[in-house]
Specification:
Length: 387
Amino acid sequence: MRTDPLPSPAPSSTEVASPWPTQPYFVREVPIWPPVVLAPMEGVTDLTFRRLIRQIGGAGLTCTEFLPSEGLRQTGGQRGRIAWTAQFDDDERPISVQIYGKRPEGMAEAARIVEAMGATIVDINMGCPSKKVCSNSGGSSLMADMGLAIEIVRAVRAAVRVPLTVKMRSGFDHSARNAPELAWRCQEEGVDAVTIHWRTRADLYGGQRAVDKIAEARARLSIPVIGNGDVIDVDSARRMFADTGCAGVMVGRGAMRDPWTLLQIQRAIEGKPAVQLGAAEKERVLLGFLADLQARFLRESGALGRFKKVCSHFVRGLPFGEEALRGPLLRAESAAEAADHARRYFAHLAAWEAGDPEAMRPLLPAGPPEPPQANTDDEALAGAEAC
């Protein structure tokens, strides 16, 4: 009788290897686990929103809103406002602070300021498609001027000791999808990881999914490549890992529509079942977010405006949310009124979840209360593209 260990059977040709990563990726010496990143989003990922995501869980790395390099270098009120935007909690680790600009020396000085603030990672924005940023030769416009882009990377790398990353798009337009080449040159200048959004700058918030340049960069580089673009749920995260071999995924607007998205992706990666959420938990989180905004903003109008911006996406992830809740929330003239609308909606939703098929009818327009289809259209989610 044979006594030596038998070899494991070869996998069947029909078996498909899991696309999920099994270990963290490293931004130099900084481990990122779970390999799920909250994207930097202008007007969204302030301290309050990042606290919300951290309380729920699932983010291995969080990122601030982008900061203008020239504004950081100012003195007085403008710099104070920008520094307020970049605030983070002492225990928010690791934290990436993103800067943008067109002057290498200005970007280098801004990076030194960000490092002194305590950032774990400095990130250079070469991905933002907004006219405000691109008109000043920053953001994704740098992809059309690789020489300047590399000058900026070189200057920032020489200025700071913390890990340095770059976020970019697949190219400026479809005639020059040069992300793999730019990413490789960034790596050669000492960048520690890159994030690539599959869209070009010309695509803005539309376009047809094409992740080949992410996969090409992943095959060419030795540093981590993070995949970005329409990662809005477990299935889309699985596709990004499977189609590109990326080290991690970045979640942007999907986190506004469903703040539990990052947690659900983490649980899928770790082989755990999805978290089941009811009306009571969603109400608690939404009203808690509003209260935190009120505590952070000096004026109620500022808190209410930010709440409405996030809620215009959040309601799309709720049963009947667009029909029953979006309008009342966006028309609310005070935080108290918005909270009352939310409580009324969630009370009806709880009854509907408990089995009352008519519970939502009083909040809906005329017609049978059929659950709406999930809305993943890019234009419907536009307005807070990851920077």
